[in-house]
Amino acid sequence: MKNLTLSSKNLLIYRVIFASLSWFTIIASALIYTFTYGTVLPWFNSFKAFTMQTNLIVTIWFTLAIIWHNKPESLDKIMGPLKGAFTMYITITFVVFAILLSPFYQPTGFAAFSNLVLHYITPIAFIIDWVLTETKVRYKWNYLLYWIIYPLCYIIFAVIHGTITSNYLYYFLDINALGILGFVMFVSILIAFGLALGCLYILINRKRTKN
């Protein structure tokens, strides 16, 4: 597979555009919530969602990549396996929403814009960034063992949260509604998908960095 390339200047512009769009969406949603309800504190509950967590992660990554654009030693610290993990997480956000959640969520107004940015534009932009730039470090297969920790911890968190509050955050993690067998089926599918996705990214990377 041939490596795709992008000039340093164009790559910087690309990252600035999508980091700005993502930060604007996150900050604007907080401001709109504050103006609507008179307080911002409950808005932070949105970060219980996997979508918000992963979008914040990759937005911070974009921001650091911009700040360290001309500092290769610093930039290298957030490339390689760390970027691979983040790409896997944001891809999970993108695919799971598109398949399991989008049919039940049809927002309007700013929420529709936010939905588009957080579930489609930012994930796709980050995946493209990975494709364009992640060719220096050769991934190891054992990276997958570390990458899967966060999704597993999130599932555990969602179950505990749901047990305490009766809000499981996502319907496919709701043990009460699905029953044990339904819950185990969904969780098994999600874990298998995460592992398959991680394997795919590692395989692509190893193919592209093959000596």
Count of domains: 1
Number of strands: 0
User: Cα-atom Rg, whole angstroms?
Assistant: 18 Å
User: What amount of the residues lies in strands?
Assistant: under 5%
Largest sheet: none
Amount of helix: over 70%
Low-confidence stretches: none
Mean pLDDT: 94
Q: What is the number of helical segments per DSSP (H or I, 4+ residues)?
A: 8
Q: What is the helix/strand order? A: HHHHHHHH
Basic shape: globular
Distance between the termini: 12 Å
Structural class from helices and strands? mainly alpha
How would you describe the overall organization of this protein?
With 211 residues, this protein is mainly α. The protein has one domain (8-208). The protein has helices at residues 8-37, 50-67, 72-76, 81-101, 110-133, 143-147, 149-165, 175-208.
Descriptive tags:
211 residues, 73% helix, single chain
In brief:
The chain is mostly helical. Helices cover 73% and strands 0% of the residues. It has eight helices and no strands.
Secondary structure: elements and pairs:
Elements: H1 8-37, H2 50-67, H3 72-76, H4 81-101, H5 110-133, H6 143-147, H7 149-165, H8 175-208
Helix pairs in contact: 1-2, 1-5, 2-4, 2-5, 4-5, 4-8, 7-8
